[in-house]
Amino acid sequence: MIGVVRTSAIGLLPRAVSRIVANHPDLRVRVAVGNSEDMVRDVQAGRLDAAIIAENSVSSRDLDWSPFIREPLFLIAPPGTQISDVRSALRTLPFIRFRSSVPLARLIETELGRMNIQITDVAEMDTIASVTACVENGLGISVVPRIAAVEARTDLVMLPFGEPTVFRQIGLLQRLNSPRHALITELHQHLAFVSGEYGIA
């Protein structure tokens, strides 16, 4: 069984699974969705064979985390918004934050703190999908990984976020002594492939 956090990378999993099943027709894959902390515990306990989670979510020596995608973060704004740079957008437009418990929030908040800009919060959300939906519906601006921005249902205005651009990594977590190590390694290769130019082999 594979665990996956509610992240924009969840959209890559079906493509990777279809590739591995093509090589192993008898393989049956089950997917569980949850939060990072639960996924780590479930992999450690053997309830999950592997989990797709963000960096900085793992601190155990019994586990191996291998990144398969490193993608840039983008400031996103509702379609038609007239903005030319990130700093002016952050100063003048309402901002939708991630809850502090979301791993991605730490990356974004660190860079916002470094930029030292006064921001006006309008909402706080706990998933990338909900943040993107708020922006699509004109509530304000936010920062999300590239894959979430380009796969949005509307043509969002996008600007690279950070000075320099901030990247986030998502990886595949497994036990060091996993009996399914070979299959999980193959899944990692497929995930990196379907991640395109941002994939990490």
Write out key terms for the chains shown:
201 residues; D-Maltodextrin-Binding Protein, domain 2; 2 domains; seven-stranded mixed beta sheet; two-stranded parallel sheet; 7 helices; 27% strand; elongated
CATH topology of the largest domain: D-Maltodextrin-Binding Protein, domain 2
Q: What is the 3D form?
A: elongated
> How many helices in DSSP terms?
7
How much of the residues is beta strand, in percent?
Answer: 25-35%
Helix content: 25-40%
How far is the first residue's CA from the last residue's CA? 22 Å
CATH architecture of the largest domain: 3-Layer(aba) Sandwich
What Rg is obtained from the alpha carbons, in whole angstroms?
A: 18 Å
Query: What number is the mean pLDDT?
Result: 91
CATH homologous superfamily annotation of the largest domain: Periplasmic binding protein-like II
Seen as an oligomer or otherwise, the chain set is: single chain
Unreliable stretches covering 5 or more consecutive residues: none
Tally of individual domains: 2
Largest sheet properties: 7 strands, mixed
Please explain how this structure is put together:
- Residues 2-191 form the LysR substrate-binding domain.
- This is LysR substrate binding domain-containing protein.
- By secondary structure, the chain is an alpha/beta fold.
- The chain folds into two domains: 2-69 and 168-198, Periplasmic binding protein-like II (D-Maltodextrin-Binding Protein, domain 2), CATH 3.40.190.10; 72-160, 3-Layer(aba) Sandwich (D-Maltodextrin-Binding Protein, domain 2), CATH 3.40.190.
- The protein contains seven helices and nine strands, in the order E-H-E-H-E-E-H-E-H-E-H-E-H-E-E-H.
- The chain has helices at 13-23, 36-45, 86-92, 103-115, 128-136, 146-150, 181-194, and strands spanning 2-5, 31-34, 50-54, 63-77, 95-98, 121-125, 142-145, 157-160, 167-175.
- Helix 1 (13-23) links the parallel strand 1 and strand 2 (31-34).
- Helix 1 packs across helix 7.
